[in-house]
Amino acid sequence: FFFKNKLCMTIKDIRELYQASGIIARLKIDPLVQFDNLRAYTVEYPGPAYGLIMVACNGRVVVKAHHSSVASPMMANKDQETKIPKIGSIIVGVNGYLIPYTAAFVKVLQLMKHMMRNPPVTVTFAEDDDFTSMFVEDFIPNLPVRRGQMTGGAA
Q1: Whole-prediction pTM
Q2: Residues 6 or more apart from 137 whose CB is under 8 A from it?
Q3: What tens digit of pLDDT does each residue of 9-44 get?
């Protein structure tokens, strides 16, 4: 990709293209796109559920919402405060298993269900402020709404 004399596009570049055109296909994130400020963290889920609603977004499994009825998870590092993943966080690992880019959404949900049979489950998330902004402000509003059902998977 070449954009403004750059060898690689960033999430910010993609958002600019989308906002200028209004064409949802412009939100497609190529695997070579750079995440300028990617941070990883782990959250330990005691079970019996994760309390997450997830969707597939550009070859990644992303947190779309939380179920309020599920108990809060614990940070894997006990010295840190209890934290739930931020909307727009990307699931990159479950109990040490890497979730590769373009992993099938259904397969990731199946893996997470399987792992929850023997809790606790440690999920590794990655977050990037530009990706989160794009996901919340541009991607979620364009998701199809299904009557009587929540979009994405609940685990």
Answers
A1: 0.79
A2: none
A3: 778 878 787 777 777 766 777 777 778 889 999 999
